[in-house]
Amino acid sequence: MKIGLFFGTFNPIHIGHLIIGNHLVENSDLDALWFMVTPLNPHKNKKSLLADTHRLAMVRVAVDSYPKLQASDFEFKLSQPNYTVNTLALLEEEYPQHEFNLIMGEDNLKSFHKWKNHEVILENYHVFVYPRISNKNINPRFENHPKIHKINAPIIEISATAIRNAIKEKKEIRPLLPNDVWEYLDEMNFYK
Fold first, then answer.
1. Domain spanning 2-157 has what CATH number?
2. b/e string for 115-124 if b means 16 or more Cβ within 10 A?
């Protein structure tokens, strides 16, 4: 199977993530997309994250009714911080029957040259890039790279940080979250 890997802390997962994930599996040659819940992104502050198990639980309820989308806790058993290049190598070992492809936003492509062993990733994997609104320029060597594929997907500008802040401020944010995720957050009293 051809699997797309959508890495993130998903703190929380929101409808933007689902729209992009679903669009990719329905409009590309990907057979499935795995939401790779990352315990610790090397570029993010761990203090602002909900526990790994809660973020995974929210991703699971969010993708439950989408047969081509799946939640993954694969990185939970790896040393932290998690580097994508290491995760990809271990996924290859554990699932040799699959072909893995990286999913990222255009904003991440702009800083991709700073990722650990990004050259190794580009040698071995295709990268599907969905559009984001930003004003930085993409590194010219990534512009027409044969392994980097820009996807004509909807531009979704929803921020998990803005969602967390709005919850703290007691603003109505339910339209931005899958209903089951909202119910989980509300019941657990998260981000308040």
1. 3.40.50.620
2. beebeebbee
Q: Residue 28 contacts by C-beta under 8 Å, 6 or more apart in sequence?
A: 4, 128, 151
Domain ranges for the chain: 2-157
DSSP class of residue 104 equals: E
Rounded CA Rg of the chain: 16
CA angle (155, 31, 10) in 5-degree steps? 50
pLDDT at position 7 over 90: yes
Q: Which residues on adjacent β-strands are paired with residue 159? A: none
* Interval 45-66: pLDDT, tens: 667 789 999 999 999 999 999 9
What phi and psi values does residue 188 have, to the nearest 5 degrees? -85, -5
pLDDT in tens, 93-105: 999 999 999 999 9
